[in-house]
Amino acid sequence: MHYHDWEAFCVEPLTPELGQEVVLRVRTPARKGLLVFEQGGELERKPLQAVSGGLEARIAMHASPLRYCFYLEAERVYLTSAGVSPTLPRYDRFFHLLAQPSVPEWAVGAVFYQIFPDRFRNGNPHNDPQSGQWLYGGKPIIKKGWDEPVAPREGALQHYGGDLEGITQSLDYLQALGIEALYLTPIFPSPSSHRYDASDYHRVDPHLGGEAAFDRLVQALHQRGMRLVLDGVFNHIGNTHPDFQKALSDPTSPEAGMFTFHADGSYAAFYGVKTLPKLDYANPLTVERWVDGPKAPLRYWLRRGADGWRLDVAHQIGEGGTNRKNLELLRQMHRNSREEALEALVFGELSFDTTETLRAHTLDGSMHYAGFAHPVMEWLCGQNVLGWKVQVSTPALWETLWDHYAALPLQIRQAMYTLIGSHDIPRPLWRLRGDTERMKLALGLLFAFPGSPGLYYGDEIGLNQANPYDLFNGDPMCRGTFPWDEARWNPELLSWTKQLIHLKKSVPALRRGGLQPLEVREGLLGFKRLYAGEEVWVYAALEPHLVRLPPVQDLLTGEETSGWVRVQGLGLYRLRS
């Protein structure tokens, strides 16, 4: 087998500085070949030298990304990011290696837990919003009881009283589950329960406990060695924000230039929603106030103890109401974050193709919707994220997973925020119509696939949605409250999730390993995870399949086995040396 991915044997150092010499190696029985790389618009070639375990070449990190592939002379093939090819591939199929700054070490393969604060736990009922306390969209807000179901037509008017104190009180539970980092949807003051339309980016919403509750949460997390990533809504703000109110009231004010107003008096807004005016980063004042200046929220909350940002609709941020200069702005946001905190993690909500953005040395990764969440759930449930009927074959699933993985820069492959559920899409158990076995398989793929798995709150205990299966709906129905009565939990799912998290954290090939094809036939997906000589075979079977194994340890049972084995659901097997 010919193999090259992000591990110490293949790339040394793993995160080179620009201009530094880097050693590139390929694991292979081949003894002769060439490193083929792009430099200055031309293709250059350098002989590979035979070393123990493969071939290597040394090259200066002259660009980021550095683009290269390997030519193996006797075999007459190129080794590319997508596998072997008899012909010279497009640059798109070259390996892409980034220079520093790269993904912080703590985030590689880290286990995340996403929380929608209003719905997780009410730690202090005294700070709850009350029905009718203010208007949102011209309608009075609604305070609901914790166990009341979410109503589809009441949307962001519904407030349940979850807060940061509730999260702090739940850290024993989260740590026992195996969680290493939290990602919180927005926590700043807002008239809505989702808070993506904040009115102040320098305070924590008092109904979440304010700054004191934030400080206590950060301290408690860091004492446990856990991290906190906040939701950075820097594409748009709420229309109640003072900057936008000044812009509306005085077209000659400096603030007016921070937004994109049209001749008819309208203005650019997120998906045209007028409560969400887009920030215009063509204006230097916008850049200073939001991402660059000493008081910019991007910097401020990292100084206050946050460990990183998830950038909301990262692909939309730009100038003039568009995404113009998007890559430059993302690069600046990443750089400024690292200036404030050397180990800050900055990943984006990139809902579609991530390739252009992540290869441009911008962010540490993205939410892995297109390359994991969507194809996996479509394969398992026969509907896409919009509710359309689809039919994804197992070969088509693998082709999509592999295509997206191969396109990623090497350092980012193990740090993609990999998910099956979030606050924006229907809950996986609901999409699977309550099928616990298929839910276990979805979770199994989440923790067996490369990346940093992000578990949406409640999925581990079987939290479902209140709407009937035939009434397709994501937001707001996927945002139900966490039931703290353990009698309402699915103990089988919880135990399964804990086991998967333990394996993710304790088996190096599952946490940091590369990806290689193994076996695909209809109803059976098989792939390999490899790291530093360790090899794990992963199977996902929709129905019983026989697979032939070399001597292995079954990671789910601890037993050793070999030969023909019946697999249904998830199979995890570590090859015995």
TrEMBL record:
Keyword Hydrolase carried by entry: yes
UniProt cross-references to SUPFAM superfamilies, sorted A to Z: (Trans)glycosidases (SSF51445)
GO biological process: carbohydrate metabolic process
Broad class of enzyme this protein falls into: hydrolase
Keyword presence, Hydrolase: yes
Keywords from the named record: Glycosidase, Hydrolase
Enzyme Commission number(s) from the entry: 3.2.1.20
CDD domains tied to this protein: AmyAc_CMD, E_set_CDase_PDE_N
Family annotation (Pfam families): Alpha-amylase (PF00128)
Molecular function (Gene Ontology), one example: alpha-1,4-glucosidase activity
Annotated ranges, domain Glycosyl hydrolase family 13 catalytic: 114-504
Gene3D superfamilies: Glycosidases (3.20.20.80)
Record's protein name: Maltodextrin glucosidase
Organism listed in the record: Meiothermus granaticius NBRC 107808
Taxonomic lineage from the root: Bacteria, Thermotogati, Deinococcota, Deinococci, Thermales
Gene from which the chain derives: malZ
